[in-house]
Design a protein that fits this description.
It is a single chain. By secondary structure, the protein is an all-alpha fold. Helix content is 76%, strand content 0%. The longest helix has 52 residues. The termini are far apart.
């Protein structure tokens, strides 16, 4: 009975350590996702501003480069 209890305690300790590791990874990924979302939002704002600044009414993606 004591061996089984010891085995269960070891298993529980291992699971707790694994849970802490996974939690740290998830927290780091959440921070990275938030940073990437901010960057994408800034890039989209810049692209929209560049499109608005162009003389033509055509979307920037549809315009030919100036050297064509």
């Amino acid at each position: 009975m004591t061996d089984r209890l010891t085995e269960l305690e070891e298993h529980t300790t291992h699971q707790a350590a694994t849970l802490e590791e996974v939690s740290a990874v998830v927290a780091a990924q959440a921070e990275q996702i938030a940073r990437l979302e901010r960057r994408v939002r800034l890039l989209m704002e810049r692209a929209a501003q560049m499109e608005a600044d162009t003389m033509s009414g055509a979307p920037l993606a549809d315009q030919k480069p100036p050297h064509w």
